[in-house]
Every structure is written in C-alpha cells, then in structure tokens.
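Email to the structure team, subject: Decarboxylase family protein model.

Hi all, the expression group asked for a predicted structure before they design truncation constructs. Nothing fancy, just the tokens so they can compare against earlier work. One-line instruction: predict Decarboxylase family protein, return tokens.
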Amino acid sequence: VDLEVRRLREPAVARAHLEAAQSALNKSREDGALQHRVAIAERLFQKSGYYDVAREFARLVSESQARIRSHRLWIMTGGGPGIMEAANRGSFDAGAGSIGLNITLPHEQYPNPYITPELCFLFHYFATRKLHFLQRAQALVAFPGGYGTFDELFETLTLIQTRVMPPVPVILVGPGLRGVRPSTSIFSLQKE
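Reply from the structure team: attached below.
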C-alpha cells in the first residue's frame, strides 16, 4: 500500500477514505487487498483525532506567542503530511509562521502547504535535518509515529541524558508504543 494512503488525516477526510474503502470492499468481499485497505483506513480513522489535537496545540502555542517580541517560540515540524501538516496548519490558523524541515525522499514526502514558504527547508540527509531540529528545540512534542519518530525521540532523550544537549521538556502524546504506525511525526518548539 502506498505510504500516502497511510498518512494520518483530519477526521472528516479519514472518515471519507474509510467509507470509500468499505464501499469498494462491499463490491468485492473476497479481495484481500481491499480488506487490507479497509483495515488501514479503520486504524487511521481511529487515530485521526490526533490530527485535531496537534492542530489545536500548535494554534494555542502560536496565539500565545503572538504578543511576545523576544525569545518567541515557533512551531517547527518535519514539514510533511499527517501530524506534521496538522501542526503547521495550527500555526497557519493562528496567523503565525511555522517552520518545515523537509527531507527529500524519492516517491514519498513533500512539503505541506501550511509551512511559511521562506521557512521551508529541504534536506538530503536525515542526520543534517535532525541536527537542525535538535539545535533549535526548546521543547519536543511527539505523537504516535513510525521509525523516524522513534529515532528523533530517542536521539533527543540520549543527548539530554548524556548532557550533550540541555534538558528540554519532552511531551509524549498518545496511548503508548503498542500498535504505532508510520503515520505521524515529531514537531518541536523553536526559539527565535
């Protein structure tokens, strides 16, 4: 299944994808690929509320920072779809700018449309991208995600533990590690 099909969407879109998958399956009950598609759509619909949580969190942070002139916090994400899009969208909803650190991967991730255009950066290497995240992070908010989310989370925790990086708040959102799918990512708060 295409990775784009596995991206977390806002609840209305996730519901529409689930209904479309169920409709296709109703026409061909024995089709294993359609059964798999419905199972994925059901999981994504169940988790789609995280999209709204990330969007609202980013909106609240952005609105609270609008009055601050120095040491302002910015929403900074991996710049892709799913939870990353939701966070950038929350800042956009508040009329604030946000940063996207996008990775150039063949046939996969593209910058989401809610990133402030002049703050959309493209990286060829994960290590360089992660370096920019960690150098600027004032806090880390992690939603259920895939291997990239775990990599960024554990790198942050390791650097804090070994005192290579100053301690920052690390907020984990979600039910735990069981059943995590590659549908979301980490976004951080970046001090101006």
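The mean pLDDT is 86. The beta strands are 73-77, 98-103, 120-123, 137-142, 170-172, 186-191. Ping us if the truncation boundaries need rechecking.
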